[in-house]
Known about the structure:
The chain has one domain (about 45-250, about 265-510): Growth Hormone, Chain: A, CATH 1.20.1250.20. The protein is about 75% helix and about 0% strand. The chain has helices at about 5-15, 25-35, 50-75, 80-85, 90-105, 110-120, 120-140, 145-160, 160-175, 180-205, 210-225, 235-245, 260-265, 270-275, 275-295, 300-325, 345, 350-380, 390-410, 415-445, 450-465, 470-490, 495-510. The longest helix is centred in the middle third of the chain and has 28 residues, at about 300-325. The protein is globular and about 75 Å long.
Amino acid sequence: MPPESRAHEKEAVMPPLKPSETTLSSRSARAALRALEDFEASPENPRNWASRRKWRTMFTVAMTGFIATTGSSIAVPGIHSAMAEFGTRNEKVGVLVASCYVLGLGAGPFLFAPISELWGRQVAYQSSQVCFTLFCMACALAPNMAALLVLRFFCGVFGSVGPTLGVATCADVFAPHERGRPVSLYALGPMTGPVLGSMLGYWILYGGWRWTHGVMAIMAAANFVLLSFVDETYAPAVQKKLSYTIKHPLPDARGLERLSPHRFLHERGWMRAMVSRDDASTAFKKAFSRPPRLLFGNPVAFIFSLYYAYIYAVLYLFIVSLNLLFGQPPFSTPGLFSYGWPQSTVGLCYLGMTAGFGLSALTAATMQDRIYRRLSKKNGGVGQPEYRLVLTAIGMCIMPCGLFLFGWTAGRTHWIGPQMGQAVTSYGLMLAFNSIQNFIVDAFYPYSAAATASATFARSVTACVLPIFAPTMYRNLGWGWGSTLLALLAAVAIPAPFVMFKYGQRLRERFKFEG
């Protein structure tokens, strides 16, 4: 064989060249190459972070969810003051101050879910927090009721990232068998936000209703600073950044060079280089089509999203109704019994709910993973999403009992009676809410973001509408029969987790979502 032919044959079978240390001009590029070669075992993979780093991320995201949902209720105590200033007399228009915000919480995921999938969770968190801060400031300066309602809606849109992406962020850094406790503790943030927001609102109201929005702007700005210290958790985005670092290395930074604007812009150049316009278009189309198809085309998603939405609506119904039971005018309503607490103490009427949420979170944090591991062991070490529904079933049974206790002690006993009813209701509500969140994430993986978006949209619509009619319902039916109606509606769904526990896997396989 001629020498030229042998050379060509040898060249044809040579393996492709890998980037070597001589072609990578910085330590960061070489480290990125090592991380990508075995990303599953790499410390750059969020699943491999140190435990302290994971929990710090979880608590920061929980704080983000807490602040976002606090904004939904912190304005409720100031509704009457805002109505008086703007000359509005329709009570239902006043309730829209809270409802428009909650509706925005449901609309936001359609914008920020695809952003988080394309460019990572941190881009979604930080960009939304900047806008959230600005719109909260604008609410504090609103010139009329119409402007306030529109601004409140956009506050909800930009505040939605914490409640929406929080569970996904926990799933990014925790494996399924260890996810129950962090998700349970994370959920305490978004769920206690509306309760504590109402309590704070009554005290902030002494400075005027505009300060309730001003305080939100301050909290959102502080939270933006906290988020700046959190690293990206979405593994595909981390891999894109590593690839970009390899292809576009910069010299190693020394001293203040790390703070140069050129380096800052270069490090974020991966967002344009690694995500094409077609990718972005496809992601946004899927973001708008997947949640409706899941919600209305998948019976498993529909049933649990519906109950998830109902229990969230009950939470907001309590928030706008408890001041009617415990407060003095203008917080109470004529013809309906009230304990007549003054403004200085009426915020304490939410303590029963706070206690129930705390006990429920403690129960879920200690039992959720233990139940999941025990049932998985019985199933040959294979976990199933339905194992999350044990606590759902318990919560669904407890919640109607709490509603009965609340309704039939209100106005008939000492105020401690309805407080105990609140605590029992919120305990059951939180157990069900927590475990349904876990179930949705596990059951529809890798489309958890779409499933969460559909459930969030459903819960926000019901939480927007139901509280508008709460004062009228209790005025016409009274505390006892009004709460009985809510309890009976909740009791209808009690069989659902038992049926799903037995037949859930078959139903999921039959109605498998293909994206």
